[in-house]
Hexokinase
Amino acid sequence: MRKVLAADLGATNLRAALIGEGGDVLELRRSSTPRQGVVDAIVRLVEDMADRVSSMGLASVGPMDIRRGVLLNPPNLNEHGEIEVVGRLRDRLGIDVVLLNDAVAGAIGEWTYGAGKGLRDVVYLTFSTGLGAGVIIDGRPLLGRRGNAHEVGHLVVDYRGRIRCGCGGIGHWEAYCSGSGLPKLASLVAHEHPELRGHLGRAIESGALPDAPSIFRAAREGDPLALEVVREFSAITAAGIASVASAYDPELVILGGPVYLQNRDLLDGLLGEYLPEYSLDGPPALAPAVLGDLSPLMGAAAAALSPALAGSAAQTQ
């Protein structure tokens, strides 16, 4: 059985695995994404498995240039500037390496092994530290010139630009509805609805900005401000999903990432309520990511097995 390595470099977590050609995860490792030295961290995680494979797929936060094998000043990493990843990993591990955007990898993973298996037109959305998408159209992943197509986290969902994104732009979907953006949304809603006090409102008033898990936890406890934040999150996300569906006409929109998957009890009903209001021709079909937080990792493995999926044959030369 052919085996490959796969790694998923996220803003918060780094995962790596040895995966068989049928999608069996033979060994799985996790660590926190370091503040500096991401290539060294990947090598440490996988180097003792590299002699068992001939290739590795790397799913990473972007932006990137998959033709050159570099990350381009990624705003969700602490290591800035141009980061050469493919060449350095290839030299240190002695194996071929293909690079692809982590959300594109998630789409390939779910399309190959998960919720989108057997379909030809699929959109995968991930709500994590950031917000991204991968798209499969007519049975082919859409990549773009440098592999950065579908940066839907930077779709403008608020033309008034009340919140600035980590990339520097204003009004971007990611700035409102990602793990890093949700605390800013909570602060905005607290400012616009001073009548919604409760524990969360008092905490924000005192200068303590709650994290995303705290906001969802407060909503489950009935906190009025937290409930309004979740409702605003859901309305914005429904508008974003409807826009993406209008652009790509998918058979299925797959929702992944911990911000969504860990809070479906609060979000699914509201998304179902808002989506019809924004959708062109009825709301798109939705499904949770079957592979959970392993969707990008499995897509990276699929790309290592078939590099053409990532449009990255040049990376392995």
Notes: DSSP finds eleven helices and 13 strands in the chain. The first helix runs from residue 38 to 46. The two ends are 24 Å apart (CA to CA).
